[in-house]
């Protein structure tokens, strides 16, 4: 729906091997899409754990028409860190 309305969505999975990480990424992406609006952009990057580094999930959402209520609630429930970058732009890190 968002894609047909003019939104741009980019998903970058390095190696989707961790089922829990993939499930969390899907939930956050779904929440972001629920509030995106017609002019939004979403970039989702998922990096599995590697030699001494934990898994990293970064979701960057930008839309002047959205407050991202669903995304903020889902991020809080999953203990993700939400940074408000201003001008309708959020960064979510897990």
Q: How many separate domains?
A: 1
Bin the helical content.
25-40%
CATH architecture field: 2-Layer Sandwich
DSSP helix count? Answer: 2
Task: Indicate the overall shape.
Answer: globular
Number of strands: 5
Per CATH, the superfamily is: Histidine kinase-like ATPase, C-terminal domain
Instruction: Report the span from N to C terminus.
Output: 26 Å
Order of helices and strands: EHEEHEE
* CATH topology-level name: Heat Shock Protein 90
How big is the Rg?
Answer: 13 Å
Average pLDDT, all residues: 77
- Biggest sheet strand line-up: 1-2-3-5-4
In terms of DSSP E residues, the strand content is: 25-35%
Structural class: alpha+beta
Largest sheet: 5 strands, mixed
Low-pLDDT stretches are none
CATH class value: Alpha Beta
Keywords:
Heat Shock Protein 90; about 90 residues; five-stranded mixed β-sheet; alpha+beta; 2 helices
What would you note in describing this structure?
- This protein is an alpha+beta fold and 94 residues long.
- The protein has a single domain, classed as Heat Shock Protein 90.
- The protein is 27% helix and 33% strand.
- The protein has two helices and five strands.
- It has helices spanning 19-34, 69-77; strands spanning 8-13, 41-47, 56-62, 81-86, 89-93.
- The chain has a five-stranded mixed sheet with strand order 1-2-3-5-4, covered by helices on one side.
- It is globular, with a radius of gyration of 13 Å.
Explain the layout of strands and helices:
Blueprint: E1 8-13, H1 19-34, E2 41-47, E3 56-62, H2 69-77, E4 81-86, E5 89-93
Parallel strand pairs: 1-2
Antiparallel strand pairs: 2-3, 3-5, 4-5
């Amino acid at each position: 729906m968002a894609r047909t309305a003019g939104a741009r969505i980019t998903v970058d999975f390095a190696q989707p091997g961790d089922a829990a990480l993939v499930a969390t990424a899907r939930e956050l992406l779904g929440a972001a899409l629920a509030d995106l609006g017609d002019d939004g952009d979403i970039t989702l990057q998922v990096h599995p754990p590697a030699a001494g580094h934990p898994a990293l999930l970064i979701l960057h959402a930008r839309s002047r028409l959205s407050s991202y209520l669903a995304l903020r609630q889902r991020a809080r429930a999953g203990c993700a860190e939400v940074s408000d970058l201003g001008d309708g732009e959020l960064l979510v890190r897990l």
